[in-house]
Task: inverse folding
């Protein structure tokens, strides 16, 4: 197991370097130059040229990337071109908002989607299954920004029950969390239903029933445990995507998160800020994928035996 973990950690190095190169290249080909975006249209051209030269924009692309990668490997991601402060200072200031929103959304989505998916599979072709499937398709088709705007209109403006923007208290997170969780819960419901229908037809489930195991034990102890593998994978991937910046939801509810910070940095072509945010999220996502593989070993004894043998 330890050798596998070390191998996966070493494989993260070329992956992160590839992500670094791709993002740096994309930021390089985006139209416009940082000086024009930061100083505006009414600043003399000489001042813009001097700022671009100070930022190193006239050096060859590979030279700039090599210099950036050399310092980044040493932990120096530079200062923001807009605020002239270390890039991670603003990221870490906004990161708690994004992680609270992501954790709340994934917990709510799993708590709603998985039990309803199990119920729909056990009660296949019944009213419960039909209602669950129709609700899942309806929620999956709703754009998150539209659901967020409707939530603001109903609960914030009409009923005046919840705030519509900011992240100052628990009440500020209710609407954006529900906005993110409901479409995700629909996906988990459909995935759990299809996986459970496949598992409960397996021979070992029929054997457990033939031995006199209770229906609850068969469903929750035998069937669901084996159906959890794809659910865990999707849950962690979805959580990693949320940490990458729930840009639309943060923008709709005016929440000071990493997604909003990254979008503003892209608009001003603040390459150091964008690079730092993307590299942090890429590192977290790779680490989460490693956690998924390790969770497989605890969920499925066959995977644990394969790790031990390797």
Result:
């Amino acid at each position: 197991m330890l050798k596998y973990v070390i191998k996966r950690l070493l494989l993260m190095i070329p992956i992160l370097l590839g992500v670094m190169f791709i993002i740096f290249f994309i930021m390089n080909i985006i139209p416009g130059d940082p000086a024009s975006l930061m100083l505006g249209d009414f600043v003399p051209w000489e001042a813009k040229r001097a700022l671009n030269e100070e930022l190193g924009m006239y050096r060859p692309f590979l030279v700039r990337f090599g210099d950036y990668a050399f310092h980044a490997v040493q932990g120096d991601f530079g200062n923001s071109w807009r605020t002239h402060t270390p890039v991670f200072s603003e990221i870490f200031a906004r990161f708690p908002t994004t992680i609270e929103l992501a954790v709340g959304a994934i917990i709510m989505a799993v708590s709603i989607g998985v039990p309803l998916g199990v119920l729909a599979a056990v009660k296949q072709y019944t009213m419960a299954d039909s209602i669950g499937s129709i609700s899942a398709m309806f929620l999956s088709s709703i754009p998150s920004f539209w659901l967020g705007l409707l939530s603001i209109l109903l609960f914030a403006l009409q009923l005046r029950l919840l705030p519509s923007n900011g992240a100052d208290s628990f009440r500020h997170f209710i609407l954006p969390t529900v906005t993110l969780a409901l479409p995700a819960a629909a996906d988990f419901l459909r995935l759990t239903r299809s996986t459970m229908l496949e598992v409960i037809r397996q021979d070992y489930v029929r054997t457990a029933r033939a031995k006199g195991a209770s229906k609850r034990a068969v469903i929750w102890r035998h069937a669901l445990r084996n159906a959890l593998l794809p659910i865990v994978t999707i849950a962690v991937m979805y959580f990693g995507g949320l940490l990458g910046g729930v840009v639309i939801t943060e923008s709709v509810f005016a929440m000071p998160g990493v997604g909003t910070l990254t979008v503003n940095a892209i608009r001003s072509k603040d390459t150091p800020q964008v690079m730092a945010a993307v590299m942090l999220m890429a590192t977290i996502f790779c680490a989460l994928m490693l956690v998924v593989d390790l969770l497989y070993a605890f969920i499925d004894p066959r995977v644990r035996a394969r790790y031990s043998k390797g």
Remarks:
- Residues 94-259 form a domain with the MetI-like fold fold (CATH 1.10.3720.10).
- The two ends are 8 Å apart (CA to CA).
- Residues 15 and 286 are 9 Å apart (CA to CA).
- The mean pLDDT is 84.
